[in-house]
Design brief:
mainly alpha; Endonuclease III, domain 1; 11 helices
Length: 193
Amino acid sequence: MEHELHLTGDAGADGLLSSDPLALMIGMLLDQQVAMETAFAGPKKIADRMGRERLDAAEIAGYDPEAFAGLFSRTPAVHRFPGSMAKRVQALCGTVASEYGGRADAVWTEGDPDGKEVLKRLKALPGYGDQKARIFLALLGKRLEVRPKGWREAAGAYAEEGARRSIADVVDEQTLKEVRETKRAAKAAAKKS
C-alpha cells in the first residue's frame, strides 16, 4: 500500500493505516459508536501498546484476551467499548490468520477476485456487516486504488465520485467535516421519519 491516507489528523496513525492493511481493516472494524478519527487512530494505539511498529494477525489472535482487553482500556481507551471491541478485533485477526495466512490484503488480492467476491469476503469477516464491507471496499477503491472489476457496483453508493458519505471520502480536514455533516443530516432525517 503506497498511498498516503489522511483519516485521523495524526501523522503516526495515518502512516500505519497507509502502510499496514491489517491496521486499516481494524480501523474500519472499530468505526462504530465513536468518531471516525478515533476509530482509525485505534490501530496505532494497539501497536504502540504492544510495542510493535506493525500489527500481526496471528499475534493479536493469540494474545491473552484479558491482557488484550487491558490494552484497549488504557487511557486514552482504544474504543468506548474496550472489552467487546477487543474481542471483535481478536476474532477478526483470528480469521485473517487462519483463512488468509495472516495477510489482510489477501482478502482483496488472493485469487484475483472481482468486486462482488471482495465484498463477499469482507462481509464474512467478524464484525463486518453489509454496510461496513461496502464502505471498506469503497475506501480501497477510492483511496488505495484497489479496484477489482465491478468494485463500484459492489460498493454501491459509497463508491460514487464526489460523495461525502463515509470514511472512504475523507482526504483532509475539510472532507472529514463534510462527511460528518452528511451523517448528521441523515440522522436528523431518520429521527423525523
